[in-house]
Amino acid sequence: MHITIVANGFQEDYIYNLVNHLADKVDRLDFIGSPIYHRKKLSDKIFFYEFRPHQEQKGGIAKAIGTLKYYKKLLSHLLHSQSPVVHLQWVRFSFLEGVLLTWIIKRMGKRVFYTAHNVLPHDSNSYLTKLSFRWLYLMQDEIFVHTSFIKDRIVKDFNLSPKKLHVVPHGVYQKELNPVITRTSARAALNLPQDSIVLLFFGIIQAYKGFDTLVEGVKLLGENRNVQVLAAGRLAKEYEAEFKSLVEKTESTNYSYILRFLSEEEVEKCFKAADVTVLPYKEASQSGVLFMSYTYGVPVIAPSLGGFPEDILPSKTGYLFEPNSPQSLAASIQKCIAEWSQAGQQERQLIRDFARDNYSWDSSCSKIVEAYQAKQ
Question: In whole angstroms, what is the distance from residue 234 CA to residue 201 CA?
Answer without folding.
Answer: 11
